[in-house]
From TrEMBL:
Residues of the VRR-NUC domain: 1-81
Protein name: VRR-NUC domain-containing protein
InterPro entries listed in its UniProt record: tRNA_endonuc-like_dom_sf, VRR_NUC
UniProt entry keywords in alphabetical sequence: Hydrolase, Nuclease
Co-factor(s): Mg(2+)
Length: 92
């Protein structure tokens, strides 16, 4: 599965759950995840989407670690299984 397909499935699935999966870009903080996911009940998560087998860059790993240290859910998703797990965790 490629990154664009995972991204489309993420957007559609989050919308069905009542949330938004917005494209996220931060020009002054490189490495931030691709999508910010906003869910009902003030829940926020971040998703870095990759083609199967691709790994995040060092900058992306650092940004994800910073987000997690602040208590946010931040995941790298590169498969249908990873997407399913992410969706299950944010829908609780």
């Amino acid at each position: 599965m490629n990154e664009k397909l995972i991204e489309r499935k993420l957007r559609e699935s989050v919308k069905k759950l009542g949330g938004l999966a917005l494209k996220f870009s931060s020009p002054y903080h490189r490495g931030m995840p691709d999508r910010i996911v906003l869910m009902p009940g003030n829940r926020i998560a971040f998703a870095e989407l990759k083609t199967i087998g691709k790994k995040p860059t060092e900058l992306q790993k650092k940004a994800i670690a910073e987000l997690r240290a602040m208590g946010f859910k931040a995941e790298v998703i590169d498969s249908q299984e990873g997407l399913n797990k992410f969706l299950e965790e944010i829908s609780c």
